[in-house]
């Protein structure tokens, strides 16, 4: 009676679907497993992206005992049982779900066992661990981000489940139509658990054809079992991403009616996740410094939408879409950071000026670190002329202000004034 997603969990690290930045050849977790030098870790990311699978695969590849608990629902007594097992039989890999809800008594009990390596803790959370997890736990773990699976990753997992006769659906004669496969790979936005469980429901609730005993799963069956409609059918399966692209480009192009149309298509397909992500990106990428308050209001709208859910969520989302469409636009911030990143990636960076180096340690003054630093608050207008960029980049200008809104016009005026003051060694 265990669900398909549970049965298909990997037992070896090379069976993990996706997350190649962690488990691919030569990557950090693969190296830990190969060397059998495991450290406790926290995996954070969206649901259904493989956090528990990675923990299970680590245990299977290293032959350590594997136990799974939930920080919110399992008591200290269950933790004590795992520690007792580790004392008797050796190292235990403990998967602790919802680790951000670990209480202080449980935390205090676990800490010494993490220190001596008796317990290899693999914590899982959908929350930002730098905010939600206590410093005591963070300082004893490595933190790795688990990313949403790509459609190609999801398709790989589906095909593996369809052909696996022992744990998957390989004993059933299943025919998945191309449209159904496209919808399964795209509709859950990287949540493999939801995908596999919907696939199993579809397969076991669809009557086979009498003569061939084939179970045909078409788009309508998959839509019903996922409870998510396909946006439109197309030959290449790209329609979903085409609509998301059109949504952002319509807002960037200031066409409120088109943007509302694509918003409606995404919401009707149940894809509020993509809407939320796109709106937050658009607010900072396309509107940016021309209207910073629009970005703040977009964050509030997305937060409200997530709290109240559909269908009411359509209201704050529509508010945000209309405001972003009608707002002045500026991409100066993304252009500025991309220009700076291009320099770094090309190796075009220099030494931090001595005056800016850390001086909070004995002997720093002998190295000339921080000795010539001028504290801006000691000067009129809390500003003083001094060089901040590395010497070889002294003339670089990453930020190129635009003048599409009153706010960035004011930023431009201040930016130009400060640059002139730096060059002239005094305020303009």
Automatic annotation (TrEMBL):
CDD domains xrefs: AAA, HLD_clamp_RarA
Domain AAA+ ATPase: 37-149
Alphabetical keyword list: ATP-binding, Nucleotide-binding
GO molecular function: ATP binding; ATP hydrolysis activity; DNA binding; enzyme activator activity; single-stranded DNA helicase activity
Keyword Acyltransferase: no
GO terms, biological process: DNA synthesis involved in DNA repair; DNA-templated DNA replication
Family to which the UniProt record says this protein belongs: Belongs to the AAA ATPase family. RarA/MGS1/WRNIP1 subfamily.
Identification of the protein by name: Replication-associated recombination protein A
């Amino acid at each position: 009676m265990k669900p398909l997603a549970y049965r298909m969990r990997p037992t070896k690290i090379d069976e993990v679907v996706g997350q190649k930045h962690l488990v691919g050849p030569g990557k950090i977790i693969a190296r830990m497993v190969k060397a059998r030098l495991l450290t406790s870790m926290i995996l954070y990311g969206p649901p259904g992206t493989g956090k528990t699978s990675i923990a299970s695969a680590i245990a299977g590849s290293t032959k350590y005992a594997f136990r799974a608990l939930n920080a919110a629902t399992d008591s200290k007594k269950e933790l004590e049982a795992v520690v007792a097992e580790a004392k008797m039989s050796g190292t235990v890999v403990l998967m602790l779900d919802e680790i951000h809800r670990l209480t202080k008594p449980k935390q205090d009990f676990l800490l010494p066992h993490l220190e001596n390596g008796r317990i290899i803790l693999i914590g899982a959370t959908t929350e930002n661990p730098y905010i939600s997890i206590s410093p005591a736990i963070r300082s004893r773990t490595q933190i790795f981000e688990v990313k949403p699976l790509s459609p190609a990753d999801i398709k790989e997992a589906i095909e593996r489940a369809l052909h696996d006769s022992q744990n998957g659906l390989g004993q059933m004669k299943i025919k998945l139509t191309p449209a159904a496969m496209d919808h399964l790979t795209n509709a859950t936005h990287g949540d493999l658990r939801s995908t596999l469980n919907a696939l199993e429901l579809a397969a076991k609730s669809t009557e086979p054809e009498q003569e061939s005993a084939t179970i045909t799963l078409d788009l309508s069956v998959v839509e019903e079992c996922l409870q998510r409609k396909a946006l439109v059918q197309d030959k290449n399966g790209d329609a979903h991403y085409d609509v998301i692209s059109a949504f952002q480009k319509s807002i960037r192009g200031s066409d409120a009616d088109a943007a509302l149309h694509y918003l409606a298509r995404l919401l009707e397909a149940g894809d509020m996740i993509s809407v939320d992500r796109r709106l937050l990106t658009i607010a900072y990428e396309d509107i940016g410094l021309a209207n910073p308050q629009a970005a703040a209001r977009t964050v509030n709208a997305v937060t409200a939408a997530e709290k109240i859910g559909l269908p009411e969520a359509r209201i704050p989302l529509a508010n945000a879409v209309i405001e972003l469409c009608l707002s002045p636009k500026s991409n100066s911030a993304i252009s500025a950071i991309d220009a700076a990143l291009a320099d770094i990636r090309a190796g075009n960076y220099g030494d931090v000026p001595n005056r800016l180096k850390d001086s909070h340690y004995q002997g720093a003054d002998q190295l000339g670190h921080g000795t010539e630093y001028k504290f801006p608050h000691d000067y009129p207008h809390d500003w003083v002329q001094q060089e901040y960029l590395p010497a070889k980049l002294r003339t670089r200008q990453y930020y190129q202000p635009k003048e599409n809104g009153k706010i960035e016009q004011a930023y431009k005026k201040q930016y130009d004034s400060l640059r002139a003051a730096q060059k002239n060694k005094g305020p303009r």
